[in-house]
Amino acid sequence: MAEAEAAADSQDAAWASFNTPLDKASLLAFCQNVERLLRINPYLEFEKWESCGENLFHFQGRNLSQNPPFAIDLELQMESQADCVRLEYNRGLKSSTTFKIEDASQGSKLTIIEDYEAVHEDERQRRLEEVDKSLVKWAEDLQLYIMRWKRWSWLAPWRWYMQRIWQPMNPASRRITYMLLWISVVEVALIILGVAIYFAEFR
């Protein structure tokens, strides 16, 4: 279960931590896929994503964690180290996001740290409508995704679906697909039940 909180000694950062079934090396490799990390966030709606150079990306879209949503148009630079992956942003309230990787009793521990130190407290108060409120839900969905990745990534059709179909979907499309899938499951179950009742009654 993900745990999130504001930094005790500063109002400039917030973090969320959770355990994963991956070892440290596998989790580091997972976190180096920046686009996937961000697309797992259910409050980010992508309009444009492109590579602008080595570990440099341009991201354009909307953050749905506020009402009304606010627009995003920024460049982000990825820096990978032995125990973390850090994303630095060229504009916006948030200056960086760090994915810190640590050993755990089973698997590893991932901590997402969002830093707002580049923007003065007074300015942050004036721009509260741009604060990203997605951290806790993002951590929860990321933990669930990693658990599924550990269990199913050996299966080529599953990897293909998650990378080619699920990942490019926006959050609303994923919810609709999920509902349609369960409706289809219920319909198939009802058909099977009807056939079973028919044979039980008339044979």
Query: Strand-and-helix sequence, N→C?
Result: EEHHEEEEEEHHHH
- Helical residue percent? 40-55%
- Count of helical segments? 6
Distance between the termini: 51 Å
CATH architecture of the largest domain: 2-Layer Sandwich
Characterize the structure shown.
This protein has 203 residues and is α+β, with helices and mostly antiparallel strands. The protein has 2 domains: 3-154, START domain (Alpha-D-Glucose-1,6-Bisphosphate, Chain A, domain 4), CATH 3.30.530.20; 169-203. The protein is built from 6 helices and 8 strands. A hairpin with a 4-residue loop joins strand 7 and strand 8 (108-115). Residues 4-10 have low confidence and may be disordered.
Itemize the secondary structure elements and their pairings.
Layout: E1 3-6, E2 13-20, H1 24-31, H2 34-40, E3 44-53, E4 56-63, E5 70-80, E6 84-89, E7 96-103, E8 108-115, H3 121-126, H4 135-152, H5 156-166, H6 171-202
Antiparallel strand pairs: 1-2, 2-8, 3-4, 4-5, 5-6, 6-7, 7-8
Features:
203 residues; alpha+beta; Alpha-D-Glucose-1,6-Bisphosphate, Chain A, domain 4; eight-stranded antiparallel sheet; 40% helix
Please summarize what this structure is:
With 203 residues, the chain is α+β, with helices and mostly antiparallel strands. It has six helices and eight strands; from the N terminus they run ββααββββββαααα. Strand 1 and strand 2 form a beta hairpin.
